[in-house]
Write a structure and sequence with these properties.
single chain; 203 residues; mainly alpha; 9 helices; disordered N terminus
């Protein structure tokens, strides 16, 4: 059976997996490297199922190790961060609508936190009234604001009038929306070490 000590069975499995994918033996003191390898070993041992990655926290620092050890046998869930790219469109092109979404976020995040376990300090978010329209997209670059907007998706969708405005705006700015989501997905794929399709060469 698998054990958790790198001195016993895990290390033996790890060396075998490293040989299998033609990589050098992992550093057992580097947990960003070791944990994806352990998960891959467990997946192979118990049914050879796919590793599933949730991108909600933008775990890009660990993506290279995940891609290396799974060799692409994985599933990446990007719904939450793709939602943030949709909101980025709104922040760039429809500042008043973004402000409405942000206000909904501030009013509903306490309820949303019943469903999400996060450590973001929302007090660090710059007050909306202090931010000019031109700088609204910067909210989508800051971890605390990203978490805030991320977790209130459902509250926006439940607000029929706001949801209608959102869909209309995304329809108007469809080209930009598709570009941002496409670039976002390609970033995941690139960091996971997957080869580009021929149609993506040079992009």
């Amino acid at each position: 059976s698998l054990k958790t000590s790198p001195d016993t069975t895990i290390s033996e499995h790890a060396r075998k997996q490293a040989d299998l994918v033609n990589h050098k033996e992992p550093d057992f003191n580097d947990w960003l490297e070791l944990l994806p390898l352990i998960m891959t070993i467990i997946a192979k041992t118990y049914g050879n199922y796919k590793i599933s990655i949730h991108s909600g926290s933008d775990k890009f620092s660990v993506y290279p190790a995940i891609g290396k050890w799974t060799q692409g046998r994985l599933h990446v869930k990007t719904a939450g961060t793709s939602w943030l790219e949709a909101v980025r469109v709104i922040a760039r092109q429809e500042p008043e609508l973004y402000r409405e979404i942000h206000q909904v976020a501030l009013a509903s995040y306490q309820e949303a936190l019943k469903f999400y376990h996060i450590t973001a300090d929302f007090s660090k978010i710059t007050p909306l009234a202090a931010v000019s329209d031109e700088l609204l997209p910067e909210y989508l670059e800051r971890p605390e604001a990203r978490q805030l907007i991320h977790i209130i998706y459902g509250f926006v969708m439940q607000n029929r009038a706001l949801c209608e405005k959102l869909y209309q705006a995304l329809d108007i700015h469809e080209e930009l929306h598709y570009k941002l989501v496409r670039d976002h997905l390609r970033k995941h794929i690139r960091l996971l070490g997957r080869p580009k399709k021929s149609s993506e060469a040079g992009s």
